[in-house]
Amino acid sequence: NAGVTQTPKFRILKIGQSMTLQCAQDMNHNYMYWYRQDPGMGLKLIYYSVGAGITDKGEVPNGYNVSRSTTEDFPLRLELAAPSQTSVYFCASSYGGVNVLGGANVLTFGAGSRLTVL
Amino acid sequence: GESVGLHLPTLSVQEGDNSIINCAYSNSASDYFIWYKQESGKGPQFIIDIRSNMDKRQGQRVTVLLNKTVKHLSLQIAATQPGDSAVYFCAEKRGANSKLTFGKGITLSVRP
After folding, report:
1. Which of A24, B23, B40, B53 is deepest in the core (most CB within 10 A)?
2. Is B32 on the interface with A (CB under 8 A)?
3. What is the mean pLDDT of each run of 10 residues along chain B (112 residues)?
C-alpha cells in the first residue's frame, strides 16, 4: 500500500491564482481530512469527509473548497490564493467512527504539500 | 483558544535519558487522546493512543499517562535516542463522531 499520497510537494503561487492539491489513499478509509500547519503551530482542520459524496467544514475552511467523488480521492481547491494561505498542507485518512484503541481513529498522514503565495 | 495545549515549546534531553512530554487539555468531555511524532519534512506519525477510561498505556519504549483529575496527558520515552528528535503533538477527540483537535507541538532535541 502507498498509504496517503499528496501532490505536489512544493508549489509557489501568485496572489489570485488558483490550484488544486491532490490527495489519494489506497487503504479504503472512509474518512479523509485536510489540515494546514503554520510555522510553530499545530494542525488546523480545513475540511473533512466521512465518505464519498459527503464533505464538511473544519476550523478554517474559508478560501478553500473540497470534493469527494470517490472513496480514494479528496482534492483541496484554492480559488483565489492569498498570502495568508502560505502553509504546509497535510491530507490524512482514517476508518473513523468509534474510539477503538489503535484503530479507527488513527489518522494516516501524507508527506505534506508546501505552498507559498507571493 | 485551543483546548489542547502543551506546556513547553522545546525539550532538550541527553541521549539515553528518559523524556517526558506534557500536554494539558481543557475539555473534560474529551474521551480519546493520541500522540503523534513529526520528523522534519514529513507528516505526523502515530505513536500511541489512550482512552479516557484508562490511566496508562504502554508501547515499545513509550508510555502515555492520563490524569483526568487535572486534565493532563504525558508521553514518556524511555532511553531516548537521536531518532526520537522530532516535534510531538498531542490530540484529543470528544466522542465518536468528532474530529481530532491538535496541540501546538513540542520539539524534542536529543543531545549526543
Report:
1. B23
2. yes
3. 54 96 87 91 91 94 95 96 94 76 89 92
